[in-house]
Every structure is written in structure tokens, then in C-alpha cells.
Design brief:
By secondary structure, this protein is α/β, with parallel strands linked by helices. Helices cover about 35% and strands about 15% of the residues. It has a seven-stranded parallel sheet with strand order 3-2-1-4-5-6-11, sandwiched between helices. α4 links the parallel β5 and β6. The radius of gyration is 19 Å and the shape is globular.
């Protein structure tokens, strides 16, 4: 699918990955983009300022327009659905069901009814503690046990999409630990890179959680960290490849420790590494993931050939070119 020849709807477009997607489209000379989001009291509107798009609509008004004036959206040929509540600590189940499950069902049904391309954000949080593996196989969804309501709300739609036969026509993305520019507004859900940069700049030190698992030393807990610039390249690959359908892990394919993640921050800031290990809150200990690593064979088999940005290079680019300068993607 040639994304330059259609109108693209990006939901969650003012958010972290959504705004990065618009930036990546702009880099390709594409600006026939309809942006939708909830512009609440956060500062995420700043992500949109340097970007090019043809219109903006609030998320609740988007659904109203779909219901009342569908002809006004007839030119939309691709929907990149990133809009959701992404807080893993959110406890309001009704809110998560409305935003992450019901809204996605309605939007996907409308998109398929007009034979447009639908690519949506699922989440690696659907895998829970990883006891059932982290393989992007639609046939094993019932075995997954998410650890929080956010992950469960995403899991519910994956199940719904399979039950209705949609997964043979759409692409769902299980993002792992994405970090990079345009996440400033995410408060406690910001990446450790963003939080650590602030700590190091203020105190010269960084705090990491102690380990409560005998197989992992303090700071040795492992996650699959993915730079947002790689995440959007993978997403746009799936958007433009109509034969790439089903669920896809989007990660680097390699687990790194928290120490691996924060060390290049010190390097980028030309400071010696000083790490303190602190107690993990009791409320998080039972839900903590000690190891995540994306199996990305399915993504590669779909034709995605770009190499991954190394963790060191990604962190240094983020710190030197964005965090240190207070800049967003698209700022000159």
C-alpha cells in the first residue's frame, strides 16, 4: 500500500508513538494526515507543533463524525490506531474498557467496512510475566495472563479480533519497552531514560529498583528496549504491507539490563556512572516483569529488513539531540 496516495488517520496522534509516526510520515513527504486524540491538561499538544497534518479532531468527536457524517471521512485509506489509555497503573476498569476495548472495536469495524488498512497498538503487557512465552502467535492467546488491567484491556481486543476473523485482515502491534523523544508528557509512564536523565542532571546519580528475584542481581533485570524511531519504522512497514496481518512483536529482539540502559546516559552527559539501588514499592513487586525479549521472526518474515539501532546509539541520540536540548521530533 502506498501511504502517500491516501489519507491517513492517526489516533493518539499527539501522544508519544503517535506523534513520532506523524513525524516519520512527514519525513517521507506525507502530510495528508487526520490527527485524533484527547488533548487533556497535559503538555502533549507540544508534540504536534512542529508536525504537518491537514486536520485535528478530538477522539469523541471522531466517533460522532463516523456515525453521523461518514462521507466526510471517505478518503481515509489507512488507520493507525495508537489512541488508548497506556497507564499500566490505571485501576479504573470501566475507563480502560471504554477507551481501549470498545472504542477499538468500533473503529476497526468501521475501517474494515470501507476496506481501509487498520493497524493498531496491542501491547507486550498482554504477555504478563512471560510464563507462557512471548511469541506473537494468535493461536495461543487464551494462555496469556496479563498482570494489570491495561494489559487485559488490550488482550480483550486481540481475542475479539481473532474471534471475528479480523486478524487475517489487520495488523496488531505488541510494542515492548519503547523510549525516545516526545514522551515528556507521560508523567510516571515516562521511560527510565527520561527519568534517569532528570535525576542525573539534578544529582549526578540515578536510582534503580532492587531485584527481588534470586536469578537477577540488582540492576540486572532485563527488558527489550526499543527506540521510538525504530518502532515507527516497523509500524509504517506493517501499514504499507497489506499481506502482513495478525499480531506482531515490535521490539529490538534482544534483552538488556537496566544498567545497560542507564550507563550510556552518563556517557552522553560526560559524567561518571553512579547508581543507587532502592526498594521497589510493595504494590509493584507481585506484578513486576523481570525479563522481556521480543521474538521478531514474524516481523522479519513479513519483509522488514532494517537493522535495529543499537541501545547505546539510541540512548545517546535521545539524550544529546532531544533531552539535553528540550526538543521534540520535528524541531529544527
Amino acid at each position: 500500500m502506498d501511504l502517500s496516495r491516501t489519507t491517513i488517520l492517526v489516533t493518539g496522534g499527539a501522544g508519544f508513538i503517535g506523534s513520532a509516526l506523524i513525524w516519520a510520515l512527514n519525513q517521507r513527504g506525507i502530510d495528508r494526515i487526520l490527527v485524533s486524540d484527547y488533548l487533556d491538561q497535559s503538555e502533549k499538544w507540544k508534540n504536534l507543533v512542529p508536525l504537518r497534518f491537514m486536520d485535528y479532531i478530538e477522539a469523541d468527536m471522531l466517533m460522532k463524525r463516523i456515525e453521523e457524517r461518514p462521507q466526510s471521512l471517505v478518503e481515509v485509506g489507512c488507520v493507525l490506531h495508537l489512541g488508548a489509555c497506556s497507564a499500566t497503573t490505571e485501576k479504573n476498569g470501566r475507563y480502560l474498557i471504554d477507551n481501549n476495548f470498545e472504542y477499538t472495536k468500533q473503529l476497526c469495524n468501521w475501517t474494515l467496512s470501507k476496506s481501509a488498512r487498520f493497524v493498531y497498538a496491542s501491547s507486550a503487557a498482554t504477555y504478563g510475566d512471560g510464563a507462557q512465552g512471548m511469541l506473537d502467535d494468535e493461536n495461543t492467546l487464551e494462555k496469556l495472563r496479563p498482570l494489570n488491567m491495561y494489559g487485559y484491556s488490550k488482550h480483550l481486543f486481540d481475542l475479539h479480533a481473532r474471534r471475528h476473523g479480523w486478524l487475517s485482515r489487520i495488523a496488531g502491534m505488541k510494542y515492548f519497552n519503547v523510549f525516545g523523544p516526545n514522551e515528556d508528557h507521560k508523567d510516571d509512564m515516562r521511560s527510565v531514560v527520561h527519568k534517569a536523565f532528570g535525576q542525573i542532571r539534578a544529582t549526578g546519580r540515578v536510582q534503580l529498583f532492587k531485584s527481588y528475584h534470586r536469578d537477577y542481581p540488582d540492576g540486572g533485570q532485563k527488558r527489550d528496549f526499543l527506540y521510538v524511531k525504530d518502532a515507527v519504522e516497523m509500524t509504517l512497514h506493517l501499514a504499507s504491507t497489506r499481506t502482513a496481518n495478525g499480531l506482531f512483536n515490535l521490539g529490538s529482539g534482544k534483552a538488556h539490563t537496566w544498567i545497560d540502559l542507564v550507563t550510556p546516559i552518563f556517557d552522553a552527559m560526560q559524567m561518571p556512572a553512579k547508581i543507587d539501588f532502592i526498594d521497589m514499592p510493595e504494590s509493584l513487586r507481585a506484578k513486576y516483569q523481570y525479563f522481556t525479549e521480543a521474538t521478531i521472526d514474524k516481523l522479519r518474515a513479513s519483509g522488514y529488513t532494517r537493522p535495529m539501532t543499537s541501545l547505546d546509539d539510541a540512548v545517546i541520540d535521545y539524550v544529546r539531540n532531544y533531552l539535553s536540548k528540550g526538543q521534540h521530533l520535528g524541531d529544527s
